[in-house]
Amino acid sequence: MATPEAPSTPSNFIRQIIDKDLDSGKHSNIITRFPPEPNGYLHVGHAKSICLNFGIAQSFQGVCNLRFDDTNPEKENPEYIQSIRNDVEWLGFQWPGEPKFASNYFDQLHGYALELIKSGKAYVCELTPEQAREYRGNLKEPGKESPYRNRSVEENLDLFERMKNGEFEEGKMVLRAKIDMASPNMNMRDPIIYRIRFAEHHQTGDKWCVYPMYDFTHPISDALEGITHSLCTLEFEDHRPLYDWLLDNISIDCHPQQIEFARLQLNYTVTSKRKLKQLVDEGHVTAWNDPRMPTISGMRRRGYTPTAIRKFCDSIGVAKANSTVDVAMLEAAIRDDLNDNAPRAMCVLNPLKITIQNYPEGQVEQLSAPLHPQKEMGERTLPFTREIFIDKEDFREEANKKFKRLVLGKEVRLRNAYVIRADEVIKDENGEVVEIICTYDADTLGKNPEDGRKVKGVIHWVSATESLPAEVRLYDRLFLDENPDGNKEKSFLELINPDALTVVKTARVEPSVAEGQPEQGYQFEREGYFCIDSEDSKPDQLVLNKTIGLRDTWAKIGD
After folding, report:
1. Which parts of the chain register pLDDT below 50?
2. pLDDT value, residue 1
3. Beta-carbon neighbour count of residue 375 at 10 Å?
4. CB–CB of 195/213 below 8 Å?
5. In the annotation, is 263 catalytic?
6. Which of 78, 317, 370, 515: CA 20 to 30 A from 449?
7. Strand 31-34 vs strand 63-68: parallel, antiparallel, or unpaired?
8. Maximum C-alpha span of the chain
9. What is the pLDDT of residue 9?
């Protein structure tokens, strides 16, 4: 996969810090990391972090590691690991060598835990979870020291070894760092750094029954990898003193600088992994990669492009304070990219039969049309026949002058084809129009009528006999509320948009679409941007996903 060009982003506070570090000689090369926990699929918020970490490294000719912080085996899954790898690569980024795992460092982490015990800076605690909460205090009151805090080094070493050997049940004991129970920062009140878990680990099997906590693992993993700048979202700002304390109190040479930035928050979107998993587990969506989901794999399947996502992440910048970004900005980036790069095609969602009575029966005329109106993408072939389909919405028996489509007794141009006139309608027993009898002007292919008649309307169409049937899935935003996470009256599940998915099984598409690859995007003229579904579509049974409309219809709703 080709590495994307380094984004031409304006300077931000992180780049200024790195520039200063390079100028001062503090660092001669830059190493960052993207460290997801493999407990779910990545979402749009992770896309910002991926673009930032990999983009920073790329801009400064450094490297960015992909590291899985896999310290919680009960919630982690090899499926998630593979999906994360796929997402990072799809976005256009690469890491040196094989991905790294925090579990690769379990032996070293255990050694540093022993080092803290030997220096009197860690102890084995037997408080129950309920007691630990009581002893911890709150934001207004300091915590109380555990009665086990002053155990001897020898006793702590013995108990920790027995914890490691599986002699105690889960929850019976934990290893805590000995810092300051009166600290105003709750994270510094003797945090747990190891706990007992009898769980099979996806990388280490059953070797361990004690697992390090994330706050212990993360800074040490960074240091072991020689990370220069550890870029985290703002919720880790209060964890930074613990990050620094741990590295200052073990015998490790490297001390990365943790820098926090504002996470990506989009309106009309939920990005909590727990809530996304709930959507999947309870069947509100079909899977993590459901095109309604804000996961990277869901956006990919829906037809979003990596270029557009990278440009969007670049455009919103890097800030020090959280704010909510309008999802319309992301949608606009998708539209801009697809408008420039998606080939054109025609699709009729709700077919209405047209019979051109003066066109030769059985004739198939191969018309030529550009794949893109402004770019040199080549041509596609449109079979034209006596019977064609137009969209039902493009015909009225009577209409005012504002209706620029087909009206009984009047003319309209077929896109890339001829001018036709509606002469007669055929209705079923319910009075519904089921067929229109038309005539065509054979001298209007690629030119206006010779007698000066002005035909203002243009509609799309497909051949009734040569077009292909397709199932088209029309997607919209998953939530109706601008802040589904913050609504005080309803849960986020009650705010799901019932029209987020509409399945159309009657659609017909021009034959060229069958030549497309999975995830290939198209602009279906006058309908919007669509792509070939990567899972369910087959050459003889096309399934197409609506990526986005030609314009922002939600803006009108807001107005």
Report:
1. 1-7, 558-559
2. 44
3. 11
4. yes
5. yes
6. 370
7. parallel
8. 104
9. 57
